[in-house]
């Protein structure tokens, strides 16, 4: 279906070196986009290099930029490089994030601050710089996707991470206000809120991955591939009349 094609578009994925971000990079390239990847890792992972190699054969570019989304200077430098290399930006997936499992009574101040720097300031200012480049480059059909979480609205029965939940609640709070301001520029802003997904973020908790299965209607934990349909839908013209929406992809967990 033509509306799902991203041919000729330039996308950016933060935290695209692994986990769900890598899945978004792969999917955006398969839909026809060139993809810029921002990640804090000093070099691209073998998995990202494999994806890059796969799409280079069909002429799609995947470019890696070292960028720390919690640093204004680092983000600005990386955005300048994207502008120089691609001259425009149509899609931005603000995905980079970290978690911290800690009881409310024990949550350390500095770890809490770090969560907010990456998960809130990083998402907000990535979206801000992306929108500026979209407007400046007169990009067609621009779309920004913020990555929230079901933890932004609900507590997680079997693990304690109230500070992380606060950061994801902030992302979902930012969503309608930013969508309102960017609507007149023709930029749509939506969120994806994943449920429980098997990634490097969650593999340190095999007992939880096992127990989480029982909390979903579909009887299994998600994988990064389960998220990509939502990403392509929100990035593409298939969702051209949707903005300020949080698309929950959780195997039915939060409706149970
Ligand atoms: N895994 C889950 O169950 C789950 C559920 C809901 C939401 N999420 C959210 O989805 C997003 C991706 O999660 P994931 O599970 O793939 O995580 P992950 O830890 O597997 O991958 C995160 C990526 O972000 C990068 N990153 C970390 N800090 C960064 C920074 N300061 N600047 C740039 N890049 C940085 C990491 O290097 C890594 O490549 C996060 O925002 C997370 O909060 C995850």
Account of the protein in words:
This protein has helices at 19-30, 46-56, 72-86, 109-136, 162-182, 206-212, 228-235, and strands spanning 10-14, 34-39, 62-66, 91-94, 143-147, 188-194, 246-249. The protein is α/β, with parallel strands linked by helices and 256 residues long. The chain has a single domain (2-255), classed as Rossmann fold (3-Layer(aba) Sandwich). The chain has a 7-stranded parallel β-sheet with strand order 3-2-1-4-5-6-7, with helices on both faces. Strand 4 (91-94), helix 4 (109-136) and strand 5 (143-147) form a beta-alpha-beta unit. Helix 4 (109-136) runs parallel beside helix 5 (162-182). The chain binds nicotinamide-adenine-dinucleotide. Nicotinamide-adenine-dinucleotide (NAD) is lined by residues 14-15, 17-21, 38-41, 67-70, 95-99, 118, 122, 147, 149, 194, 196-197, 199-202.
């Amino acid at each position: 279906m033509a509306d799902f094609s991203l041919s000729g578009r330039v996308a950016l994925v933060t935290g695209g070196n692994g986990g769900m971000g890598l899945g978004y990079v792969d999917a955006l390239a398969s839909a026809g986009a060139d993809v810029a990847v921002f990640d804090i890792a000093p070099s691209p992972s073998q998995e990202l290099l494999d994806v890059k190699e796969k799409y280079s054969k069909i002429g799609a570019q995947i470019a890696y930029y070292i960028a720390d989304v919690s640093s204004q200077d680092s983000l600005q430098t990386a955005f300048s490089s994207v502008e120089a290399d691609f001259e425009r930006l149509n899609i931005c997936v603000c995905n980079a994030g970290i978690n911290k499992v800690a009881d409310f009574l024990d949550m350390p101040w500095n770890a809490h601050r770090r969560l907010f720097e990456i998960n809130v300031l990083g998402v907000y200012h990535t979206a801000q710089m992306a929108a500026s480049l979209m407007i400046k480059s007169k990009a067609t059909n621009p779309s920004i996707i913020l990555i929230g979480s079901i933890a932004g609205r609900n507590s997680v029965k079997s693990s304690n991470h109230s500070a992380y939940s606060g950061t994801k609640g902030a992302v979902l709070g930012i969503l309608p206000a930013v969508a309102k301001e960017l609507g007149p520029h023709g930029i749509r802003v939506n969120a994806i809120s994943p449920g429980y997904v098997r990634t490097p973020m969650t593999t340190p908790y095999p007992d939880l991955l096992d127990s989480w299965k029982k909390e979903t209607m579909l009887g299994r934990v998600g994988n990064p591939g389960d998220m990509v349909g939502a990403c392509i839908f929100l990035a593409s013209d298939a969702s051209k009349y949707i903005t300020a929406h949080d698309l929950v992809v959780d195997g039915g967990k939060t409706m149970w």
